[in-house]
Amino acid sequence: xxxxxxxISNQEKLESPIDFRSDTVTLPSHEMLASIDNxxxxxxxxxxxxxxxxxxxxxxxxxxxxxxxxxxxxxxxNLTAMLAHCQRGDEVLIGRHYHTNVYEARGVSVLGGxxxxxxxxxxxxxxxxxxxLSQIKDNDPSLCCNKTSLFREHFFWKSSxxxxx
Length: 165
Known about the structure:
Elements: H1 10-15, H2 30-37, H3 50-63, H4 74-85, E1 91-95, H5 99-102, H6 107-112, E2 115-119, H7 129-135, E3 148-151, H8 160-163
Parallel strand pairs: 1-2, 1-3
């Protein structure tokens, strides 16, 4: 049995394009497709992608920040956030059923050498403080972890596969 629900048809997606199961299943609306046809393309590395530059500047201004960075997927942004805060040998406390733990192939461990410590969560995705505190390792250089960080997802979705339903 698959842990994923069957995809709806492309026509149904165009009529109701927002699908929150994943950042890769939502299809653009007709208006978005028309906009894509008229978009000036460029290379982001060489700062030639005007659309991305404008989006990043808009987000930075909106949030009152010096700069912002566009990530095309949630997986990429989650991985970057964890790697920005952790070094090899560090550990991340993460909800056992969080998307990052279950569906993102533990990229932070594979690519960054960061350990993952799954914590049980409530139905709403919250973790008990006592559960988190009990998993923080002593500051002992002979232990595997240098420091422990907490990763909290803003969007929590528990699939029927993870609940056993």
